[in-house]
Design goal:
Elements (H helix, E strand, L loop, with lengths): L3 E5 L3 E7 L2 E2 L5 E2 L6 E6 L5 E5 L2 E5 L7 E5 L15 E8 L8 E7 L5 E5 L13 E7 L10 E6 L7 E6 L5 E5 L15 E8 L12 E5 L6 E2 L2 E5 L4 E3 L8 E4 L2
Parallel strand pairs: 2-11, 12-20, 12-21
Antiparallel strand pairs: 1-8, 2-4, 2-7, 3-14, 5-9, 6-7, 9-10, 12-15, 13-14, 13-16, 16-17, 16-19, 17-18, 17-21
Length: 253
């Protein structure tokens, strides 16, 4: 005989995803227990429960989120209650240093679920047989540009374009893995693949989801462009930089 049933509903859920390297592949979930999540804006009754699959957001209000039902719960008793959205903001970091810290903000509640991207640090990035790119992002005067998101599209001959993403750290340094980039064939018409680079960056903040597109220094009459053409040599580790410079030079919009 069931005397009573405890019914608990989470308000929302966060998945922390490894967003670095090749895109358009299944993203690996970063276990929430390995992360340090600090909230700067949240309801006073909010509690975070970290699990391998993500972080659950628990609240005491409205009261229907936590109920004790006399006897066995009926199907209607298991339905989640109506709940108003509430703002949440904070910063997540990785004590082990494999992922870069980031800020976040969104409206939570109603169990909609949120997928927040984390980018690997130089320490957490490994280069395989496909090679990769290293470098740093800075302004024309040499000031480092922190937290810039680099988006690289490579177009191998007779294949669909491949997208890769990385983020620079607090010092502007980055490592971009080219994992899954196909190797050159023996009869390849060239030793490199053509690619286009775009960068999103801003003078402050570390929320990669809100960064505007920056301009990248190239060549020609108007040196700062929306994208930079580069040649990628599969299997090699190369430095990515603006022409005539030892770093990738950016300009904010």
């Amino acid at each position: 005989m069931i005397v009573e049933t405890l019914v608990l509903h989470a308000s929302d859920f966060i998945e922390w995803l490894d967003a670095s390297g090749p895109q358009n592949v299944a993203r690996r979930v970063v276990p929430a227990q390995t992360l340090d999540v600090r909230l700067s804006l949240a309801p006073s009754d909010l509690q975070l429960i970290h699990k391998s699959s993500g972080t659950a957001l628990w609240r005491r209000q409205p009261e229907a989120l936590r109920q004790v039902i006399a006897g066995e719960a009926a199907p209607a008793d298991l339905l989640p209650p109506d709940e108003a959205l509430f703002p949440i903001a904070g910063e997540v970091s990785d004590p082990a240093g494999h992922f870069l810290p980031r800020r976040f903000s969104f409206d939570a509640g109603q169990r909609t679920g949120h997928r927040l991207r984390l980018f690997r640090s130089a320490l957490g990035t490994r280069f395989g047989n496909a090679g990769g790119l290293t470098g740093r992002t800075e302004l024309a005067d040499g000031t480092p540009v922190a937290w810039a998101v680099l988006e690289l599209r490579v177009t191998p001959p007779l294949a669909d374009p491949l997208d890769f993403v990385a983020q620079s750290d607090a010092h502007g340094e980055f490592r971009l893995s080219l994992e899954r980039l196909p190797a050159l064939t023996k009869d390849a018409p060239a030793e490199t693949y053509p690619a286009k680079l775009k960068v999103r960056a801003g003078p402050d903040g570390s929320d990669p989801d809100t960064l505007p597109q920056a301009q990248v220094r190239g060549t020609g009459g108007s040196p700062f462009k929306q994208e930079l053409a580069v040649d990628i040599a599969p299997g090699r580790i190369a430095t990515l930089a603006s022409p005539g410079r030892d770093a990738l030079v950016l300009r904010f919009p």
